[in-house]
Every structure is written in C-alpha cells, then in structure tokens.
Amino acid sequence: MKTIRNILHSNPVARLLRPACLFALCVAAACPLEAQQRLQSGARADNPRIDRLRDSVLVSFTLDIDSLPVRSSHAVVLMPYLTDGAREWPLPAVEVVGRKHALYASRNGGSIYADADTRIVAKQKGANPTVDYRASVPYVDGMGTLSLRFREDLCGCGDRDRLADAAPLAQADVDFHPALAYLAPRAEAVKARHLSGEAYLDFPVNRIEIHPGYRRNPAELGKIRATIDTVRRNPADYRITRIILRGFASPEGTYALNTRLSRGRTEAVRRYLVDCYNFPDTLFALSHEPENWEGLRRYVQQSGLCDKAGILALIDRDDLQPDAKEQALKTSHPQSYRLLLQECYPGLRRTDYRVDYVIRGFDVGEAKELVRTRPQDLSLQELFLVAQTYEPGSDDFKQVFDVAVRMYPDDPVANLNAANALLEQRRPEQALPYLDRAQDCPEAQNARAVALILLRRYDEALPLLQAAAEAGLPAAKTNKRILLLNNQ
C-alpha cells in the first residue's frame, strides 16, 4: 500500500491514532459479529475491536482493500462510525482512490468529503497491503452498547443521499460496570427497642397523690399512655418487657422533703399505670432524683442572667450540702432566685419514662410489606434480605438500602450498602457521603475506588483497589484488573 497523504481536519470528535501501549480503563472489548467482515464495496474489515480506554473509546480493525474494485479516475469512500442506536459518533473515513484520482488528490490537496477526517489510500494493481486502522472518540457517560458500522460511498460522487449502510461489524458495552461488595449485617438475637419521653405532672403542694384532672395532668398523663398504647397496639408483633420511671423534684425546700416527694410521686405514676393497664408490679423499674441540680445548671448555662457565672460557681460547689447550697443561692442571688422559681423550677419537676419492648422476627414476605408501612420494626438484616429479592441497580433495590440507612444512620454496614446501591446507579457524588460513615474495610475501599473511577479520578482509585485486592477482596481484584488492563 502506498499512502498518498493523510488529511486530518479539525474534527474534535475523532482522531486516527498511531499504535501505542496504553494503561487503560478497558471496560469491554468488542464482540465481532464475524471474524471477517466484507463490506458492500468489496473491502474487508478484519478483527474489529471496540475498547474503552479510560476517557476514550478506541476502534481498531485491519482493512483489506485488495478485492475492492476502483477505476483509475474514481474513488470509494468508507466511513466507519459508532452508534448506540439513538446517537452516532463518526470516525475518520478511508478514501480508496484509483491512480488518476490519486494524482488529482496529490496535486489539489483535497478529498471528496473535505469536511471530515479522511485518510486517502491509493489502490494499486497487485500491490495492496492491508491498512491498520485505529481511531478514537471521547467517552460519553451512558454510551452503553456501541455498534461499529460503515457507510460507503460506492460511486465516489460525494452524494450523501446515495450512501450504502453496511450491517454492524462488532458490538461492545463500553460503560463501566463496577464489581461491588455488599456486607451482610449481623442478625439481632433479640430486636429490642424502646420509646421514651418526659411528663411534667402537677401535684398539690407537698402531696404525692396524682389527680388526673389537675392542671396539666390530663395532657401529661395522656403522653405516657400514648407511648404505651403505641406498643400495645400491635400485640402480635410487640411485647413490653419493662417500663422505667424516674422522678425528679426541684431544689426548693429541704432535701429530706424532696426525697419523699420524688420517691412518692414516681410511685404514684406507677400505681396510675397499673390501674390503667393491669400491669404486674414486676414490669416496672423505679428510681428518683430528690433535687434536679443538673437540670438547673443546664437552664442557667443557657440563660441570660447577669449573675450567671456566680450562680454556676455556686451550683458546682461540692463542699456544700444541698440544703446549704439552696440557702446560699437564695441569699446571694435573691433576684435571680425569684426568677428561677417562676421560670425554671416548674420544669425541673418531671417524670422521665421509657417503655422497653421487643419485636418478633419477620420473614421476607412480611418484611417486604413492612418496608413501606413500618420500616422501624425491621432489623438491618431483615432489610438486607428484602433488598436481595430485587435486581441490583433497580429503584426498588436502592430504595430498600435508603430505608435501611435512614433507620440506622450511624451503622457502618448500612452506610456502605447504601453507597453501593447508589454506585450501582452510577451516582458517585451521592455515594461518597455515605462512605465517609462506613468503616475502613476492604469493601469500603473498593466502593470508594469505584466512586472515583466513575468520577474519572483513576489515579486516586488505584491505591484503594490495590489495598482492597491485597486484603483478598475479589471485587477489588476485578476492578483493579479493569483499571490496569494493558491494551496494545
């Protein structure tokens, strides 16, 4: 073969390449539809390949023009292109010219399709070696499966309406399909949960009996009952194991009196709940705090009192007994003390309550229904098993892991799996924040590397893949092999 000239115009889409040794993100090589592909013109394209090389898609084949008939003054133009069925990416054309046409092209510096990259090849009788063809186009996200096709200008007349379109020569999926490693959560031996709250009950001065209709008591007792009723509403699934009550009194009055009040009022709440629900006494765990100095300190710390520093110093004194501390507060800061009595002390008198309960286990069918209605009742393992019933990368698959990380926001496994589900959908920017909360393990290293590859930060991804591969993670070995494939 004798090449007259290469005419490479400023087409940003495609360039002919010289053979090179490239470290490549080679996602897929083409599947030739036939080992030898004869075009309508008589030319033959042998061993066609489509390779993803990091941010480029490389096309290569060997073009045999020996059987392509071209008269001396004519030309045949072969125009390869890539297509995903909806879009096309043109590649540099090969214009095979007869002897007289070659002389004309040499003297006039032009080709039939001057608006495209074109390689002019002279057709010589009995001396037509093969043409090694290599060209590339920039990779575009979502290219998917590409086909290599040819359009041919058999008359060499430049009439685009008369182009012949050959069948596909090869196909390849050039998108990066990462290997991801999910972690199965540990099973909960007992699904223990709890609900808690605070009730601010009102009692007559120095009394410990509950009057359900007194002042705020209807609403405050209703809060406790509503919490218990939430658990009792599903007796087939929930079982109350313990009710914890802790009563607090405010610091005014003597410590002995406040001890009696805090203990007695907590017991009164217990008796009220026993009467309401017929609970056994053994279900309850009671405790009390005679004087809520901790709550007083929090209030003062956040207040705008002008003598806040002095009050805090007094509260923090360990050398004073509670009654002496109360008296010092009253005498040293009388104005602030009166304000605290009105604004702060009522809130210090409260009963903290907590309802401990267990939830039964659910099979996968039940769990699939509960994901939509009561996801808080499912363990992380149950959510994981539901996800396995969906196709990886599907919206349903991702939604289950979204629910899991919402129910268990601090769990490293939940965060890793949520990130992987996002990476299945090629959403690395959204996956990275979850990976920040995942544990430092080979599976997380692999996921971070996949995110970086999708963001085309290949050199940052490689050390992570190497570390995860050295730890024995198969997914990391697969991704590393793709990233480092030496493509000749």
If you had to describe this structure to a student in words, what would you say it looks like?
With 488 residues, the chain is of the alpha+beta class. Helix content is 37%, strand content 24%. The protein contains 16 helices and 20 strands. It has helices at 99-108, 217-232, 255-277, 293-302, 308-315, 322-332, 334-343, 345-348, 364-373, 380-387, 395-407, 412-424, 428-436, 442-454, 458-470, 474-483, and strands at 2-7, 15-16, 22-24, 31-32, 36-38, 44-53, 56-64, 75-83, 88-90, 93-97, 118-122, 131-138, 145-153, 164-165, 170-173, 191-199, 238-248, 284-289, 350-359, 485-487. Strands 1, 4, 8, 9, 10, 11, 13, 14 and 15 form a nine-stranded mixed β-sheet that branches. A five-stranded antiparallel β-sheet has the order 2-12-7-6-5, with no helix packed on it. It has a four-stranded mixed β-sheet with strand order 16-19-17-18. α1 (99-108) links the parallel β10 and β11 (118-122). It is elongated. The chain starts with a strand and ends with a strand.
